[in-house]
Prior knowledge:
By secondary structure, this protein is mainly alpha-helical. The chain contains 6 helices and 2 strands.
Amino acid sequence: MTGKFKIGKSSKEDYKKFLKKADEFYEMMQQSLMKEKWNAAGLNAIHTGISANDALLTFHFGLRSISPKHDDAVKLLISMMERDDVEIKAKHLRQLISVKDLVEYDGRLLSRSKAESLAKHAERFLDWIRSLLP
């Protein structure tokens, strides 16, 4: 099932490291929102989602996406997790990843509303991930 994705293998215990990263990015996202640093908030929201996804896939399957195509991480999540809610929950990660290049590399600045929207997606995705980890 993973043959079509570029994956990296990890020890199941490494999920804790990815979850710690997700928590730190989430905390920085919250602080950036309070300080009205919309670009920093948006980028930290994106990295919260990516690290949370890595934590989940590492814990359950000992792997994570290392593809340069960011959407492959979403596809890998959907293909590996056999849950009724995975498609709905993966939409949060897809929303985050869909603007990664814009936030990191484009000359445009994020608006308050876009940063707050990304933060909501990150929070909802992280909450779901936490519900699936010990």
